[in-house]
Specification:
Pfam family, one: BACON
Radius of gyration: 36 Å
InterPro entries: BACON, Ig-like_fold
Structural class: mainly beta
Protein name: BACON domain-containing protein
Largest sheet: 8 strands, antiparallel, barrel
Strand order of the largest sheet: 18-19-20-21-22-26-27-30
Shape: elongated
Distance between the termini: 102 Å
Number of helices: 1
Helix content: under 10%
């Protein structure tokens, strides 16, 4: 029976040892000294931590004197570790050696991460009208970073954890400037680009069921609201202007716009004025038209080596059909309305392309 009890006690002891090994309260141990708790992992900013020791006798503490970034003091069984800020990009480690008269020594590693200087974005886009763009800057050191800007059209201001760039209105198609963020030996470059899409464009398109590609000269001008552009110029009769949105280098036109008034003489009723409304159309599947404000026709910005801007319009995946299938938007249309009644499509702009006149 005693053998059985001894085996049970042995198994219970193994269980306790395993459980303690998984617990941070017993980090290191020898015959007459153990580390009860150690909180000595630091970020680049540095700070204070502690090592709690349990020993049966007097202990001695030492740290490599060449590692002056790590200091220590002791009060009874608590060793307080003070770490200076790390200005280097690499992390660092030093051992705190704790020994007893019997010659037993435990080494506790004190670790510190390298300095961090990072930004939330490496590229900034400005529209031709200019404006303000902010990026977040993470600096783990107390030392402030410096900023150098390549061209004077781009200015900056440090506002807390943000670096705010400002650009004025541009009179060229494209300009760019590099901002260098500097802290000690660390340098981060941020590229700011400003593209001005205002100007005269050649607009080409097909009419519905027509093989002729029509061309018109139109003008894009910045609207009162940031990110909006107004198309005017050689538009079809009655169409005064069309509103576009520009964001993330993408030009988008939405349906449900009042774009003008069509006035003409009807042989039966005399002079008639009807509201012109912008919509979108699908030819491939349904030859359907919708004047819903949520439906759109869009074009990504293409900029050639000669700084010629091209917008080639296509489906914006905004029109859901039966069973939530995507119906491709292949054209914008202008329809006639009067007192809530729809009188049909008047103009079609299919496979529309805008090319900046150089």
């Amino acid at each position: 029976m005693r053998v059985i009890y001894n085996r049970i006690f042995l198994l219970f002891g193994i269980f306790l040892f395993t459980a303690c090994s998984d617990n941070d309260n017993s980090v290191l141990t020898t015959d007459n000294i153990s580390i009860v708790e150690a909180n000595v992992s630091f970020a680049a900013e540095g700070g204070k931590g502690s090592i709690v020791v349990a020993a049966t006798g007097r202990i001695d503490v030492s740290v490599d004197p060449s590692q002056s970034w790590c200091k220590w003091t002791r009060a009874d069984d608590i060793i307080t570790v003070t770490v200076l800020a790390n200005k280097e990009l690499e992390g660092r480690t030093v051992l705190v050696k704790i020994s007893t008269k019997g010659g037993n020594t435990l080494s506790v590693p004190v670790t510190q991460k390298g300095a961090v200087l990072s930004v939330s974005a490496f590229n900034i886009d400005f529209e031709g009208e200019g404006g303000r763009k902010a990026i977040a800057v993470k600096n783990t050191l107390l030392d402030p970073y410096e900023v150098e800007v390549e061209n004077d059209w781009l200015t900056y201001k440090i506002d807390g954890d943000s670096l705010v760039f400002t650009a004025g209105k541009s009179n060229v198609v494209k300009r760019e400037s590099t901002a260098r963020i500097i802290l000690n030996e660390r340098v981060i470059e941020v590229l700011a680009q400003q593209i001005n899409i205002e100007g005269n464009y050649k607009m080409s398109y097909y009419e519905y069921e027509d093989t002729i590609r029509y061309t018109r000269i139109i003008t894009l001008t910045a609207g009162e609201k940031v990110g909006t552009y107004i198309m005017t110029g050689d538009l079809p009769e009655g169409v005064n202007s069309i509103l576009f949105n520009y964001k993330n280098r993408r030009l988008t036109v939405y349906g449900a716009q009042n774009v003008g008034v069509h006035t003409y003489e009807n042989p039966l009723w005399g002079w008639v004025s009807r509201q012109l409304m912008l919509g979108v159309m699908n030819f491939t599947q349904y030859s359907a038209i919708t004047y819903d404000v949520g439906k759109s026709y869009a074009a990504p910005l293409t900029l050639t080596k000669e700084n010629k801007i091209i917008f080639e319009f296509g489906d914006d995946r905004t029109w859901l059909g039966p069973s939530d299938r995507i119906i491709p938007v292949e054209a914008i249309v202008v329809g006639e309305f009067d007192s809530g009644y729809y009188y049909g499509r008047l103009y079609t702009f299919m496979l529309m392309v805008l090319e900046l006149e150089m």
